[in-house]
């Protein structure tokens, strides 16, 4: 498995929603990040349906409203593996649609019914509709029948509880073909977060 751990700037820092060390850090420093507070509230009010509530209420500040620029670049430069791709925690599905092609079938997976509904609606007139599918399922229990050549994770890993990181790594390993590629944008781009980055690396190794 080849892995690209990348740095994701700006928006991601403000939207890291959960009880990660990072969110605790930002909570104690400042309480002005309103969308993050709302997300925290929704997730804590309902550990199972919190994400769905975020989507239902439109509290989705992480949503770029377009595909992740670096992913588009990799796609356009022919750098992405062909075959089967998975986008876990796909949200409104822009990344799924952006990289779907006759050579690459993409599965967009999200635990939120409302996210999947939104993704399905937004992509309904896409010309490459036969090259992708959206599924409502929990990444940690979902068992596909075929493995993937590429997994693209944008702000999914960083959204899960720190206790789930090693399960995330095991699932990624189990879902990828032996020569499959993982591309993940998980690190907020702030110098002071070096310790947090190191803790993530440690928990994944
Ligand atoms: C921070 S959002 C990122 C969404 C999307 N990748 C984007 O960039 O717009 C995290 C997403 O992961 C989804 N999610 C959270 N836990 C999940 C799980 N166990 N299985 C599948 N999706 C999950 C949430 O519903 C949410 O859409």
TrEMBL record:
GO terms assigned for molecular function: thiol S-methyltransferase activity
Database matches in InterPro entries: SAM-dependent_MTases_sf, TPMT
Secreted among keywords: no
Listed GO biological process terms: methylation
Keywords: Methyltransferase, Phosphoprotein, S-adenosyl-L-methionine, Transferase
Pfam families: TPMT
Domain of life of the native organism: Eukaryota
CDD domains, alphabetized: AdoMet_MTases
Listed PANTHER family: PTHR32183, THIOL METHYLTRANSFERASE 2-RELATED (PTHR32183:SF11)
The name this protein goes by in its record: Thiol methyltransferase 2
